[in-house]
Specification:
- It is a single chain.
- With 328 residues, this protein is an alpha/beta fold.
- The protein has two domains: 3-115 and 298-326, Quinone Oxidoreductase, Chain A, domain 1 (Alpha-Beta Complex), CATH 3.90.180.10; 128-268, Rossmann fold (3-Layer(aba) Sandwich).
- It has nine helices and 16 strands.
- Strands 3, 5, 6, 7, 8, 15 and 16 form a seven-stranded mixed β-sheet that branches.
- Helix 6 links the parallel strand 13 (235-243) and strand 14 (265-268).
- The protein is globular.
- The chain starts with a strand and ends with a strand.
Length: 328
């Protein structure tokens, strides 16, 4: 059987190991579509997987990588044929199903979305899971009635992948965006993306009050823990926060006060098992509502053999914007 290049994660005596190596095609898992992977990206969860700092990988051996864009090589699924351009994010890739950091991937056809018109495969992965998650969060705020005229919206983890895309999309839609970051040196970068204001992470990192001064109508949070608790306590009456990450932790040291005294909504965003219809809607919105020039500005390209080295950096919050991975 043929082999192909892949980042393989194996169980070790202590933790896991990750290495770029040859992977036997015979070891690919079941699926009705085989894809020639052309581009992937580096997400926070990928950093956890290649470093082994969190047990996100639950099957061994595993090919890391939670998203890809590429071309269908073989298909027995009625929706797809050879040479179709496709995007795949989530569904347990890189966790329970062999993932995207490889020259080939075999997946279920129901997991795939057609590459949106006007987007290249590289641009799709410049968006990637992080940008897709950001778009789901924006759509959730809209469903809660949060419009540009409702008041400011706050984006935490602003210089990261989710935050960068969220700011770019929200600003293009006409929102007044407040960017929260632990890297104030990135204020210029965030302003170029469309942030009207930039605040330090420390303003949201202390113990949350039951209710604090109302500051924003909505928000997109990828941090969690005390930061999310502070966001809720500062959200205006009838506002909403879309929560999609846990960079600071899974706990939520808050109270019911924002919900029962101000009617605040906390909306959970899951991009992994998101059904197909909202996936298609989100990708369509990304193709139309994301400034392509801004996307290019926040994107940095690396080859597959640099992914493992960058894993610790994305976990440390040292990666700005989006990183696309060129698959050989």
């Amino acid at each position: 059987m043929a082999t192909f290049k892949a980042i393989r994660i194996d169980k070790a005596d202590k933790g896991t190991t990750a290495a770029l190596t040859a992977f036997d095609e015979a070891e690919l898992m079941d699926g009705d579509v085989t894809v020639r992977v052309e581009w992937s990206t580096l997400n926070y969860k990928d950093g956890l997987a290649v470093t082994g700092r969190s047990p996100v990988v639950r099957r061994f051996p595993m090919i890391a990588g939670i998203d890809f864009a590429g071309t269908v090589a073989h298909s027995s699924h009625p929706s797809w044929k050879a040479d179709d351009k496709v995007v795949c994010t989530g569904w347990g890739m890189g966790e329970t199903h062999l993932g995207a950091y490889a020259e080939k991937a075999r997946v279920k056809g129901d997991w795939l979305v057609a590459l949106p018109d006007g987007l290249s495969a590289r641009e799709a992965m410049a968006i990637g899971t992080a940008g897709f998650t950001a778009m789901l969060a924006v759509i959730a705020l809209e469903k809660q009635g949060i419009a540009p005229g409702s008041g400011p919206v706050v984006v935490t983890g602003a210089a990261g992948g989710v935050g960068s895309v969220a700011i770019a999309v929200l600003s293009k839609l006409g929102y007044h965006v407040i960017a929260s970051t632990g890297r104030m040196a990135e204020a210029g970068y965030l302003g170029d993306l469309g942030a009207t204001e930039v605040i330090g992470r420390n303003e949201l990192s202390g113990p949350a009050k039951t209710l604090a001064k109302e500051r924003w109508a909505g928000g997109v949070d990828s941090v969690g823990s005390t930061t999310l608790a502070n966001l809720l306590s500062m959200t205006k009456y009838g506002g909403a926060i879309a929560a999609c990450g846990l960079a600071a932790g899974m706990d939520l040291p808050s109270s019911v006060a924002p919900f029962i005294l101000r009617g605040v909504s906390l909306v959970g965003i899951d991009s992994v098992m998101c059904p197909l219809v909202p996936r298609k809607v989100a990708w369509g919105r990304l193709a139309s509502d994301l400034d392509r020039a801004k996307l290019a500005e926040i994107t940095h390209e690396i080859p597959l053999d640099q992914v493992i080295a960058l894993g610790p950096q994305i976990l440390a919050g040292q990666v700005r914007g989006r990183i696309v991975v060129k698959i050989p």
